Amino acid sequence: MTTNLPEISLRPPTTSTHLPQPPSFTAPTPAWLSGTWHVTHSTLPMWKSKRNVCITYTPLPAPSSPSSPPNLPQIEDLVTYQTLTSPKLKKVVGIDTPSPGGTRGGEWDWRGKGLLKIASSHWEVLGWGDLPPAAAAEGQQGEGEGEGNQWVVTYFAKTLFTPAGIDVYSRRKEGVGKGVVERIREELGGCEDDAVRKLAGEVFEVKKD
Predict the structure, then answer these.
(1) E runs forming strands in the chain
(2) Stretch 1-28: mean pLDDT, rounded?
């Protein structure tokens, strides 16, 4: 049964410059994004050989650069994961800065820290929201049963090393539920962007313990 599921609405990536952005879209604030998210589903090949993938966002003081909107401070971006065969926890740390060309917020440019400072990428929030307990429990069992949840769908632009792709985030480790994931697939499949429609058929579940 999926009667408790909320409406899921996704916008096309702003990299699809030929498509208009829906006027109803508002970006999540850095405060709402902050904290740890579990990457439960993806189309990015690099996550097929990983497990327990998490991303933690920590808002930083707003930079003094006039090119960065004062209401969108930079965010520290910490990715942690394990390979399928090792218990060692690996980390990738970077800084997210609001994209200068962003029109509605929710568009970020990532740059690595330390040895990864030469690496960069662009990502965007396509959709986000809160799930009430009834919707969060749809087809789910786990530690958070009876509690609400939050979800985010992000788009990562193509880089020299990775193809364009989609991630689905959940506050709860067990994910947002099969019904919500199916709604997300349907939204991706209905996008006017050909590349995004293709990605809808490539969504897989990221392994977790």
Answers:
(1) 35-42, 50-59, 75-83, 90-98, 107-112, 120-131, 149-156, 165-170, 204-205
(2) 84
Q: Contact, 48 vs 24, CB < 8 A?
A: no
State both tokens at 52.
């327990």
| Segment 37-64, tens digit of pLDDT | 999 999 999 999 999 999 999 999 865 6
28: Cα within 13 Å, side-chain hemisphere = 21
Q: Are the CB atoms for 58 and 29 separated by under 8 Å?
A: no
- End-to-end, the C-alpha distance of the chain in Å comes to 26
Q: How far apart are CA 149 and CA 133, in angstroms?
A: 7
Within 13 Å and on the Cβ side, how many CA atoms surround 63?
12
C-alpha dist (Å) from residue 86 to 6, 49, 82: 38, 11, 7
- For 1, 95, 123, 157, 193, the CA distances from 182, given in Å and listed in that order, are 13, 31, 22, 23, 19
Given a cut of 90, is residue 144 above it in pLDDT? no
Helix (H/G/I), strand (E/B), else coil: 48: helix
